[in-house]
Amino acid sequence: MNAQPINGETAGELAVLDASELTRDPELGAGLAASAHRVLADLVGRGAALGWVEPPSPDEVAELLDHVLHAVREEDGALRVAYLDRRLVGLGYWLRYARPTHRPHADLEKLVVDRGVHGRGVGRALTAALVEDARAAGIEVLTLDARGDNANALRLYRSLGFAEYGRLPDFVAFRQRRYDKVLCMLDLRQER
Length: 192
Description:
By secondary structure, this protein is of the alpha+beta class. It has helices at 19-23, 26-45, 58-73, 122-136, 151-159; strands spanning 3-6, 9-18, 77-84, 87-96, 105-113, 141-147, 163-174, 177-187. It has one domain (3-140): Aminopeptidase. The protein is built from five helices and eight strands; from the N terminus they run ββαααβββαβαββ. It has an eight-stranded mixed sheet with strand order 1-2-3-4-5-6-8-7, sandwiched between helices. Strand 5 (105-113), helix 4 (122-136) and strand 6 (141-147) form a beta-alpha-beta unit. Helix 2 packs across helix 3 (58-73). The protein starts with a strand and ends in a 5-residue tail after the last strand.
């Protein structure tokens, strides 16, 4: 595994793998759905805006990963997973827009980091790797959205060059609360 100290700490080695590296390790590949379910269910259960109101079932997470891995095989997406000492601590993926006129564009649909490692550089490592994957795939514009109260994620995205291009006030409903949906983009055409 491509390991590196996490934020200069030696307590654990962070490995950020792409889909092909993940499938070359049968143990990690076989446990991905269960590990991803653990992270997603915990975060959603604590109120994270990840597309579910209630924690997803193991089957929902497995179906999502199958969809993403299919897109990766078709060169219409990228998946990155982060392991700390062989324990899944984060994952993210982007998918290319399906309409033919939008093919040079992709949406970073999920980026999740286990709450036990927040602030330790996992999200930055995953996002930077996904941006590089998008650049290598010829993506011109990478978009994402975040809940307006997620200041840490929005700060991370800005630091990596994403710019806010829109905001939908009170768009996200969670229990009795409402949050803005913040739309961000990274224009990779500027770098060519």
